[in-house]
Each structure stands twice: as structure tokens, then as C-alpha cells.
Design brief:
The chain is α/β, with parallel strands linked by helices and 344 residues long. The strands form 2 sheets. A 9-stranded mixed sheet has the order 14-13-12-11-7-10-9-8-15, with helices on one face. Strand 9 and strand 10 form a beta hairpin. The longest helix has 20 residues. InterPro entries: Gfo/Idh/MocA-like_OxRdtase_N, Gfo/Idh/MocA_Oxidoreductases, GFO_IDH_MocA-like_dom, NAD(P)-bd_dom_sf.
Length: 344
């Protein structure tokens, strides 16, 4: 097939609306033809304005022959079942993070898509931020030497005043403070750079809010191939996003100037062995859109989607161990599901 990939946006809350907005600037690659939202009245006018068919039932999207792919911006616990139903209907899947809440579920979803020849995209747009993409390329090329340590924080206070009934602030949907909201992106980048995690110690506390899952979380991760990552996140302090990677030949510190909801560029400080410390500013980009465009191009066979099967499963295996450690207060081993080594 040719032309833009026709998608259904499933879940039209905060992030579904964000994706609808950014995709208006990528009409050659991807087109939203349908939206699914149980609270139809909340987005009826928006969908009418965008000429997007709206319904409340996920089955409507799966049964629509025009829909080639579904984009899931839904509660975390629903992802595994929704992916299975999409695969059964022959639809490609782009899923907002986290892919699942257990490694077994993640491995199952990855295997289903791979066996059906369907693309599974993931809402880890941090990989498409220009300075992050450049950092990953330098690491892959060996320019940073042996990657030794990672330090990262991604915090905001957007959820503090949220309706307590919202699924995003339910401990059952989002355990361990901000780990499923923001920390998961940092775990993904850590796995991307250092491979499969071996163990993790996580501390999660409720320090300055009423958020039932806690508002302050920190995880210290040891990787099977060596190296460590310190990942922290708060749901009750002003915005902060920082990712720093240390290698034997150089280090790079990347700080976002604004939340990815409305990106405003980045400040990058770095140093290579024998060289000076340098700071540069990177202009605005729209990584949420760029991730979805990459997914659409993979559906069309124009490029290979860069988040591999192993990355997807290894990240959720680490996330599951983070949950366990936040409950126990002890170092927890990271399991490797038997199905982790399926094709990308």
C-alpha cells in the first residue's frame, strides 16, 4: 500500500488530544480517520472540527476496514487485551507507555505482533528528541567509549490537582510514583544504552501530595553487562527533565527547556576526553510527531522501527522489578521472560 497510514486514536484524553494536534502536520505519512473515547461529549466538537469519526466502542475501530493501525492512549492495564484484539483484527499497533505492567504481558504482546507481521510502536518519544538521538548515535559509534553510568530525572506537577478518580493517579494503574508517567522513558533510554538490567533498588515516598501511588521515586539499576543507572522522578515539583550519560571517552548532559507536551528546545552540556566542557542550545522539535511518523513509515516498509522487541520486553521487566522493589524496599532481581527473544 501507499499513501498515509490511516489510524484510529483510542483514548482522547490529555495525550490523545496531543497526538491528534501534532499529526495535523504529518499528512503525507499518517492520517487520523477515527477516534474512540468513552466520554464522547468531551471531544465531540474537537473531532467534528478535525473531520474525525468518533465513537465510544473500541470494536468500531477494529471493525473499520479503513483503519490500518490503532494508537492506544488508554489506561495501562488495558493495553495487553487491546493489543491482542488489534492483532486479531489485523491492525498495526502504536501503544503509549508503558507497554504493560508485567514482563510476561509485554512479551506476549511483542510475540503476537511479530508472529502476525504487524508493527508495534511505542510512545517513547524521548528517543526522537534531536539531542537524545545524537547522543545515542555517538554511543553506538563508540565516541563516548565504554558507557559507565547514567543519571536522569523527569519530574512535573501536572497531576497534583488532577481529579482523584482519574486513572493516571490510581496506584493500581500507576504504581511507584511517577515511574509509569515519566521514569519509564528514562528506564527505556537506560536499557537502550546498557542492555538488560540485572537488579534494582527503588524507594518511593509520599512527601508533598495526596497522590496515592506516592510522589517521589528513585531507582538505582545495575545492568547485566555492567554499568548503572540512577533514575528519579517527582510528581509534585516543578518541571525538570535531565538525562546524563557518562562514558570513558566523554559525557553528555541533556536538559529539556519545557515538557514534551509543548517542547521548547534543549540545553546540552558535554565534554570529551582532553577537551573543554561545552554548552549548546538546540532548537524546538516535535518528537511525539516524529515517533508516530517513524511508526507509519515502518508500517509502509520504508524504514525499520528502532525500538526493538528486546528493548520493549527488557524495559517492562525492569519496570516490574521497580514495582516490586518499591513495595519491598529491597534489591530485586530483574526477570527475563522466556519469550523475550522474539524477532523485532
Amino acid at each position: 500500500m501507499s499513501g498515509p497510514v490511516k489510524i484510529a486514536l483510542v483514548g482522547m484524553g490529555w495525550w490523545g488530544q496531543k497526538m491528534l494536534a501534532v499529526l495535523s502536520s504529518a499528512p503525507d505519512d499518517i492520517t487520523v480517520v477515527r477516534a474512540v473515547e468513552p466520554n464522547m461529549d468531551a471531544v465531540r466538537d474537537l473531532c467534528a472540527e478535525k473531520s474525525v469519526t468518533l465513537s465510544a466502542d473500541y470494536a468500531d475501530a477494529l471493525n473499520d476496514p479503513e483503519v490500518e493501525a490503532v494508537v492506544l492512549a488508554t489506561p495501562h492495564s488495558l493495553h495487553t487485551d487491546q493489543i491482542a484484539k488489534a492483532v486479531a483484527a489485523g491492525k498495526h499497533v502504536f501503544c503509549e507507555k508503558p507497554l504493560a505492567l508485567t514482563a510476561e504481558e509485554a512479551a506476549r504482546s511483542v510475540a503476537l505482533c511479530a508472529e502476525a507481521g504487524l508493527v508495534l510502536g511505542m510512545g517513547h518519544e524521548r528517543r526522537w528528541e534531536p539531542p537524545i538521538a545524537e547522543m545515542l548515535a555517538k554511543a553506538d559509534a563508540g565516541e563516548l567509549g565504554r558507557i559507565q553510568q547514567i543519571e536522569a530525572n523527569f519530574s512535573h506537577d501536572k497531576f497534583v490537582g488532577m481529579d482523584p478518580s482519574n486513572w493516571r493517579v490510581q496506584a493500581s494503574e500507576a504504581p511507584a510514583g511517577g515511574m509509569t508517567a515519566t521514569g519509564i522513558h528514562l528506564l527505556d533510554l537506560s536499557v537502550r544504552l546498557l542492555g538488560r538490567a540485572e537488579s534494582v533498588l527503588c524507594i518511593c515516598e509520599q512527601l508533598s501530595s495526596e497522590l496515592p501511588q506516592g510522589d517521589t521515586v528513585a531507582a538505582y539499576v545495575k545492568f547485566a553487562g555492567g554499568g548503572t543507572s540512577y533514575v528519579s522522578a517527582s510528581l509534585s515539583n516543578p518541571f525538570m527533565s535531565r538525562f546524563t550519560v557518562y562514558g570513558s571517552k566523554g559525557w553528555i548532559d541533556i536538559r529539556d527547556k519545557a515538557h514534551v507536551e509543548a517542547p521548547d528546545g534543549w540545553i546540552v552540556t558535554s565534554a570529551m576526553a582532553g577537551g573543554p566542557i561545552e554548552t549548546v542550545e538546540i532548537g524546538k522539535a516535535e518528537p511525539v510527531k516524529d515517533n508516530l511518523v517513524s511508526f507509519a513509515r515502518a508500517v509502509r516498509g520504508q524504514e525499520t522501527y528502532p525500538i526493538t522487541a528486546d528493548h520493549l520486553v527488557d524495559n517492562i521487566a525492569l519496570l516490574e522489578a521497580v514495582f516490586a522493589s518499591s513495595r519491598s524496599g529491597q534489591i530485586e532481581r530483574v526477570a527475563q521472560p522466556a519469550a523475550a527473544k522474539v524477532g523485532a
